């Protein structure tokens, strides 16, 4: 765990001089009393800068994928599935194999564990690491995702764009010496801009940052994040055009009579989201076992996954890349029932294979595609069972798209807004709200609120249970320990008695380990030692239960204040 300073109420600083450095101005802004217009201006200007940089990063990432896809497949994501169906099957297989080798080389060389980072790591950074992600591994993960999505991998581009934006935010935070509340707000600004630029959806970008990454709706964060999100959307519209991603058929007058059907669709989509999440985790587990069983190296594992994806793509080219061409066909009623079902099953397998191969990419776009396919299939059945009155199958597809995505991402509010902004259709937004609400309830009964939080929980980071479960991990023992020999510290005799029982802490342990130990020992203190790899632990001090409880209470109070400020 990284060593982070505890947030505290710092005394007010005098106003920065006219010739003060940007870093000094920001530090003054952090310490300034609430309501200081000059301090707010500095922070908002930094938010705007982050929004512009993150927006360009997201657009650049998208254009780079399209450029490489065009070179390899002869088309970008708008028509790549149709183009791949016309290519030589050997080429369709060879491209993802080569991509897998490249991904394996990147991740094995530039990451600690050979895994690509994603949105879950950004959420963890907001909660536990002062808003900072590992810069080297973040850039490597973005490069791996770029190769994966350009060479036949079956994941999404929005997750890597979010992580790349987080890298930019961390760099800005270091340049301006941001910490604590303001560092997390700047991270939220970067995430909002990336999502906004990716989807041309400024409302959704704002809510996604608050709902998924910061996981609160504090007023102090809202303004800067909105500004950054708008900056991302403006950049998207300048370079990509002011158009919606998908176009729906016009709604029909029968829509309101079909509300119960959209509710049932929500239940169905919640179950599909749970299956998709579990399929990814099962596939990762199978990949780990295959790697151990056959001794696969860091290049062989993603290459094998690429080969399997290539074989699948020969028969099902729709699994290639982000999948917006197939999503558009589902929304415009261009697929029949069995095609939707088979495509959805194949996409689930392909996403699992991509994650099993430790290749890059996210789950945002796959969940949109899965939802559109499931919704389209549901709509075909619904309109056949009750042809009068009956609405548009495309409306079921867009409702399914929002429902599966919201359940996978744990973001019902921002997903509803994303679907609305992608389609520009108020009628669709109503259908999505009904389906999203029930899909979220169903999914929450089986997963820890989202794919990301479940992913973190599997890694031992329990953020889904609330701040009381993870904040103790941010407080190292060394900040609270009383030094050996001090008047208020335990005697050496009493401390040694506990050490002999194996009850001790090191200075780098956190309260997440100390508090359960206090519950077991029922004593007022725990010895703190230096524990060399060989030899006996050396007593250096003691952690008192009362000090630990005061620290937890203080940081919970500060967190509560941040979330309600």
What would you say about this model in short?
By secondary structure, the protein is mainly alpha-helical.
Description:
By secondary structure, the chain is mainly α. The chain folds into three domains: 219 residues, Clc chloride channel (Orthogonal Bundle), CATH 1.10.3080; 205 residues, Orthogonal Bundle (Clc chloride channel), CATH 1.10.3080.10; 97 residues, CBS-domain. Helix content is 67%, strand content 3%. Strands 1-4-3-2 form a four-stranded mixed β-sheet. Helix 16 runs antiparallel to helix 17 and helix 17 packs antiparallel against helix 18. The chain is globular, with a radius of gyration of 26 Å. 54% of the residues are buried. It holds the Pfam family Voltage_CLC.
